[in-house]
Structure formats: structure tokens, C-alpha cells
Amino acid sequence: MRYIKRTLSSIIQNNINNKSNIIISGISGSGKSSAALSVYEKRSVISLDNIKNLILACNGNEFFKKYGKNIIIDNIEQCFSILENINEDDNLVLLSDNNIDYINESKKEYIKYKLHGLSIYELANMGYMQKPYKPCEKQPCIISHKSLSFTYQLIGRGFLMEAALLEDDKLWNEVINKKVEKIVDKSIIGSINNDNKISFLNFLKELAKYTAKELNLTEIAEKLQLAPNTIKSWVKLLESINFIYLVKSYSTDNKRRYIKTPKVYMEDTGIAAWLLDIENPKDLENHNLRQNLFENFVISEIIKSYHHNGKECKIYHYRDNVGVKIDLLIEDDYYIYPVYISDSKTPEYNISNINKAALHKPLGYGNHICLVDKSVKISDNFSAISIWEI
Known about the structure:
The protein is 31% helix and 15% strand. The protein has 13 helices and 14 strands. The protein has helices at residues 7-14, 32-39, 51-57, 62-67, 120-123, 148-157, 161-164, 172-188, 197-208, 217-224, 228-240, 269-275, 290-307; strands at residues 22-25, 45-47, 72-74, 93-96, 111-114, 213-214, 244-247, 263-266, 315-319, 325-331, 336-341, 366-370, 376-379, 382-386.
């Protein structure tokens, strides 16, 4: 497997003289250990998946008496109590499959980073050039445009290290199957009733059908003949282990009625494709949910552009009761930027509704991210760009 320099590694390297502890969170298989080792080359990775290490960690300071603190601790979600034995200036590197937002077991301060699967910049060995995406008239076109077939093969393969770097797609099904099996056995089964394992796996497959759609818990519960509260708890569980993320709907305190249902996206499009019973990454191009997975891909790349640069990403989707719908809103300190997403090479434009959105900040420049061959200016403050230009 070829080595890829991660964008986040450069950010961590720039902060290496800061003596604070750091936590890197990301779905299993995103490459947290290799990213950490690329910066802290002389450190050992001590995994709490090892039962003896786990016993030591749960017995307080015995763990640090054996290993010291000049280490990288992997899988800290196995024993969060170890955080109570860490001082704020120990300069430890902690890795977790769990979502950082769910790491509340310690009141100590950490520098927190989120790592996702490989970005399109990293796959092109240009991760160091990626900047947080913000809509503008014409993005600096750094990566060469790819064909439709290549784009969908990439989306179908996914962006977790083992799958993204496969040289033979015949191995893809087996690789993804093992990855999902590992995640389910390690991070999920212990949190649900074992009798519900098959029901949970059916839930995963059903949830994949909602990729890039508004999440309807009641509808899913009815289809699977399960209680809505069970579905709600399982969604929260998947959020906590970085398996999915929910993009909240935009709303403000005014008289406009907003649709408040979040949209659900899979952390990895390859896993989503596998759950949809796609047999080969190439088959995605002809699948009826290819547009949904394309949107998932675009949203993921935007999120990566922020998180892999150590930045937070404020994003929403928008829909209200007067018919205004915007796929994505990106917020900064001054503006809110509208983004539409489609996989068309010749998209039809109807952007008149954007100015009707009830927002609490001025409207910034907007983009339609699609598969156009080159950027097209649609109006004074809106243009269509390729996904390969973001």
C-alpha cells in the first residue's frame, strides 16, 4: 500500500511544540495511527484493543508506569477512565474511533482533530495544498478533472485506506465486508442487545437508502417493524462511532417555518455502496441512488477540507414552507454561502429562490458543484464548478 501524506499531519506538525495532549478521532480505517506516526516517528503506538494493555489502563497509573507518557494511545474509547490519569501538559497523543463530541469523560483540555478517509487532494498526493472550501466565482483548479466513470468508481470504492488504495476492484467486496464486520463487532454489538444483531444489520442497509436524504425515523421504524426510539438510539450510536453524520437543517427565530429534519450522510461512500448491495465500484454509475452518493461524496470532501486543516465546519441544509430548498449552506463569521449539488455535466439552473431564503447573515457567493468540464458563471454571485475544483 503506497504511503500518502495526510493534510492533517502537516497541521499537527505545525503545533508539535505545543505541549498539550491531542486527540485524533475518526472512523476505524481512516488512518489515524499512520497520520500520528508520520509526525511522532519515534513514539510507540500502544493499543487498548490489547487485553493486557486494557487491564493496565483501567487500573490507573499502572499503565503509565509501564509505558511512560511519550507514547501514542490507540482506541482510548475502550477505557475512557484513563483520561483521569493524564495531566494537561503530558503531551500525549490519543486516538479514538469515537466522535470527539462524545468524549465527555474528562474535563481536561485537549487539542481535538477529526480525521476522515482520504480526500481527493490526498489521493492526488497534494494534501498539503488543500484549503477549507468556500464558494467563489472560480476555484483554483489544482486537480485535473476526472471522467464520469472514474469519479463513480472512486465514490463506489470509498475513501478508507484499504479500499481506496486497492489496485484490484475484485477484492473490494471482501475488504469492505471485513471493515464493516470489524466495526459492527468492535463498536456496536456491545452497545445493543445481541438478539438485535440481525435487526441492526437490516437497519444499516435500510439507512443506506436514506443517504443524502432527510432522516425519517418513523418511516424506517415502520419498514423494519421496530420502535422509533430504538431507531433513534441506533442513529445516535452510529453518530458516536463516526459511521454517519447528520447535517442539521437551518433555522432562525423568525416567522418563517423551517423543515427541521436533518439529512443523513455516510462517513464512507464505499460502505454505503456495499450496504446497497452494489457488487463492484464500477456498478455505482448505473445505480438509482448514484446522485445521492455523489452528494454524499461532495459533502464529505467539503467537510474534509475543514477538518483536515484543523478547522470546524458550520454547515446546514435548508428547506422551508414557501418552497425554498438549498442543498448546503456554509457559514463563516460574516456570510452564509449557498451550494447546490448534482452529478450532471449540463445542469439546469434555477437560482432565483436563493434570495428568498430567510437567513440571519448576508448571503455570500454561491456555487453549483457538479461535473461541468469548466466553471461557468451563472450570475454576478453564482457559478457552476466541477467537484474536481473545490
